[in-house]
Specification:
The chain is mainly α and about 325 residues long. About 80% of the residues lie in helices and about 0% in strands.
Length: about 325
């Protein structure tokens, strides 16, 4: 039964995020919010909601390894797996703003989390690595800075003052019902997945961090994977790349910040290696774009990303 509930949890997470995004976009369109802001905020937040719900539930239950492992594992999957698969499907041209601002911001967010998680090394009176509530406030401050950047970009873009699609034909009550149903699905799905992950960890003698980095991270990255592949097939490559990079920023700054505010998160020293992989994967995006100066992630680079992800999974399994 626990396996069925875990699978049901993943299904609820994916469908709940889908309903939440659809309902939010419809309501935002009715209120005259530009599609640029919708894409940079609601869609990124919606596809990151599974990580948030699982992180909050895990934090409340005192399972920081699962919360941190899920965020780091999802970020690695977002770049190496999702961008890798999407690039194999279709070449991914990347906008100048993404290269100069969003990817470096994602890299800076990972460095910030790494610094704060290891800051207790400088204080002899503190024992063990952790992300404190004060660190959570700092992390959320940088998330606010990122949102300010998003709004600035939206104002500078002339199209951000228009809604370039017709107002949805559905009524407001149905849209609000979708949002409520999506939120409910995310909560139940997150609870089922956390319970299932803990059960698997105990059953096979594995750490909760390991389960978070692999099974849970892959499951919660499915919304980003589906969104990015769908966008690439429709030639909306900006959405495909922006969704993966934007979700990484949301995961590190929004989700970890909120989780740390709820309950300080003990940080395993071994997680520093996973954080280094997060940093390296962001650098890999920049390296792929610099090769040939094409400003495009092509199929060859996509295959390299996938091989790198396979190597990382092998390393995590060997580490146990």
């Amino acid at each position: 039964m626990i396996y069925l509930l875990t699978l049901l949890g993943f299904a609820l997470l994916i469908k709940g995020a889908d309903w939440l995004v659809d309902g939010s976009i419809a309501v935002a369109s009715r209120l005259g919010v530009s599609h640029l802001i919708i894409g940079l905020t609601i869609v990124s937040m919606g596809t990151s909601m599974p990580e948030l719900i699982i992180g909050v539930i895990a934090s409340v239950e005192g399972r920081s390894g699962l919360a941190i492992g899920n965020v780091l594992g999802s970020n690695i999957a977002n770049v190496l797996l999702i961008l890798g698969v999407t690039a194999v499907v279709c070449d991914l041209p990347v906008r100048r703003n993404t290269i100069l601002s969003e990817v470096p911001f994602s890299l800076a967010a990972a460095l910030l989390v790494g610094f704060l998680a290891n800051s207790s090394l400088w204080y002899e009176q503190e024992k063990g690595l952790h992300i404190s509530r004060g660190d959570g406030v700092i992390i959320l401050f940088f998330f606010i800075l990122f949102m300010a950047y998003v709004l600035t970009i939206a104002r500078e873009d002339k199209k951000s003052r228009e809604t370039d699609a017709a107002v949805p034909a559905t009524d407001m009550r149905k849209d609000i019902l979708l949002i409520v149903a999506g939120a409910g699905g995310l909560f139940l799905g997150g609870k089922f997945v956390v319970d299932g992950a803990v059960h698997l960890a105990k059953l096979f003698g594995l750490s909760e961090t390991f389960i978070g980095l692999t099974v849970v991270a892959l499951g919660t990255s499915l919304p980003e994977l589906v969104t990015s592949i769908s966008a690439a097939l429709k030639k909306n490559t900006d959405i495909a790349v922006g969704n993966a990079v934007g979700s990484n920023i949301f995961n590190l700054l929004w989700i970890l910040g909120i989780n740390a505010l709820i309950c300080p998160l003990p940080f395993d020293v071994a997680s520093n290696m996973d954080l280094l992989v997060v940093i390296a994967s962001s650098c890999l995006i920049l390296l792929a774009l610099m090769i040939g100066r094409r400003m495009t992630i092509k199929k060859v680079e996509g295959i390299v990303f996938l091989l790198a992800y396979a190597a990382y999974l092998y390393f995590v399994v060997e580490r146990g």
